[in-house]
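Page 42, continued from yesterday. The earlier attempt failed because a stray header line got pasted into the input along with the sequence. Redoing it now with the clean sequence only.
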Amino acid sequence: QVQLVESGGGLVQAGGSLRLSCTASGLIFSAYSMGWFRQAPGKEREFVADISWNNLNTNYADSVKGRFTISRDNAKNTVYLQMNSLRPEDTAVYYCAKDRTAWGSRRYDYWGQGTQVTVSS
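This time it went through. Structure tokens are written below.
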């Protein structure tokens, strides 16, 4: 019954921006930390960012720190990933995921279907 649906992906030129959204249903969204991951062609899935239930704690992969911002709107059951200064190496399918805890355990039990982000040179 838990469903996570990503949106906002697309094609963007290097240096551009995109904002991804992940809307959740079937759970008490505000009770859980949420994360973003990505998987590039031929590569393993990697952690991008996560956020605690109340927006107060965030973490970022070194590769995106300073460029990406994770946020959430619990009233909308939505977590966002604002991606600025995009690079071709950011090209990947981006997934949102539900953490098992409110503050973040890095253990995830539900995943979205993903949204494609392609950054051209």
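Notes: The two ends are 40 Å apart (CA to CA).
Reminder to self: strip header lines before submitting.
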